[in-house]
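Re: iron/sulfur cluster structure - here you go.
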Amino acid sequence: MENAKKVDINMGLVCNSACRFCMNGLPGEVRKFASFESLATEIKQFYKKGFRALGFLGGEPTVYPAIIELVTMARDMGYTYIDIVSNGIRYHDKKFVERLIHSGITRFYISIHSHKPEIEDYLTTLKGSFQKKIQGLRNLMEFRKKGMIKDRIFLNTVINQRNYRYLTEIMLFYYKMGFIDFRFNFIRPEGRAFSHGKKMVPRYSAIMKYVKQAIELSRSLRVNLFFEGIPFCLFQKFKIMDFKNYIGEFRDGNKEISIHEARKRVRFVMKDRRKNQLRVKPKSCRTCVYDFVCEGPWKHYIKFYGLKEFKPLKKIEMVSDRKNKKNSFSYSLHRRDSKI
Ligand code: SF4
């Protein structure tokens, strides 16, 4: 997959949840799926252009009525890597997971935001969602251990007001279930997330202490950890000097996205859209040594907290703080096989 050209296909905004941190979900939003024919045509077109890696996004792709048929079609066409990003609720149904695997899904991304039922259910606004997701993760791990899932299973967590103090607890909880790939995405204040305001969107400065602890824990556990949506100056301010190893945006490359917007399909490179539309940078960033690579905060974040937290950096300090044992966690856990 590493060198394969990848496209993510957004199937539409229909979802079986209504998460409080969702960047979609404003009243009046068109919530319907794209037709099978239009998605099949797109998948064929991208294949002809040389794409061999494909991702399915929503809304919630697992509730797309013909998801199995679509994945099977893509696999039979010749896509060698097919992933799906899901809230994981439908994975409590073991037979459904098995059908997805047999149809051709090679990698699973699951969004989960807490280790506590009351927080997860509050965030998803769906009573019982935590238990369903946990059962889903158990099912996936069972299939993974049997060798039926080719690739690893990745957990995505949206950092928000309700969970930011528990980043290490979340990692430990899922690590004990066998998961070793974590990505924490800072909440993007749009759609429903924006409408909840500061009740959902924390201040960067408030979360960084916990981000630092999570990084230290990831070293102790030897698991993979990435963050998205946090400007670089925040890391340096909190003395996380080797932060570039944890920047999720660096891993995304030039991934293309295809999505239905304003009644037509549009395609874009995610990195460009983040820079040009979704993020914003104060003028002072022009004097910062990271200006050429840092994407700045989410655009609407500054409506809540302003620009004061973002301070241009004069020099790149890449001193590893791995040697700094003072604040290190002292978990005596075994090294995990990174290919689990
Ligand atoms: S470019 Fe701006 S937001 Fe990014 S690290 Fe520099 S000052 Fe911070």
